[in-house]
From TrEMBL:
<keyword id="KW-0472">Membrane</keyword>
<keyword id="KW-0812">Transmembrane</keyword>
<keyword id="KW-1133">Transmembrane helix</keyword>
<dbReference type="InterPro" id="IPR007667">
    <property type="entry name" value="Hypoxia_induced_domain"/>
</dbReference>
<feature type="domain" description="HIG1">
    <location>
        <begin position="1"/>
        <end position="69"/>
    </location>
</feature>
<dbReference type="Pfam" id="PF04588">
    <property type="entry name" value="HIG_1_N"/>
</dbReference>
<protein>
    <submittedName>
        <fullName>Twin transmembrane helix small protein</fullName>
    </submittedName>
</protein>
<feature type="transmembrane region" description="Helical">
    <location>
        <begin position="6"/>
        <end position="25"/>
    </location>
</feature>
<feature type="transmembrane region" description="Helical">
    <location>
        <begin position="45"/>
        <end position="63"/>
    </location>
</feature>
C-alpha cells in the first residue's frame, strides 16, 4: 500500500489538515484582533483541506473496491 501513489497523496492531504489545524489552534491562543482573523482564516482553509482529503479517501476506497492495485 505504501507504493500506491494515491495512498501517499491521501496521507499527505491528511497530514496537511493536521498541520493547518495545529497552526490554527496555536493562533487562537494568541491575543489580538489580527490573530483572531488569521485563526479564522486558517480554520476556513482547514475545512477546505479536510473536504479535499475526504474526497481523496473516498476515491482511494472506490478504486480499491473496483479491483485496482
Amino acid at each position: 500500500m505504501l507504493s500506491d501513489p494515491l495512498f501517499i497523496i491521501v496521507a499527505l492531504a491528511c497530514l496537511g489538515v493536521a498541520v493547518i489545524l495545529a497552526i490554527g489552534i496555536g493562533t487562537f491562543g494568541k491575543e489580538g484582533r489580527d490573530n483572531a482573523k488569521r485563526a479564522n482564516k486558517l480554520m476556513r482553509w482547514r475545512i477546505i483541506a479536510q473536504f479535499v482529503a475526504v474526497l481523496l479517501i473516498l476515491l482511494f476506497v472506490y478504486i480499491r473496491r473496483q479491483g485496482g492495485q
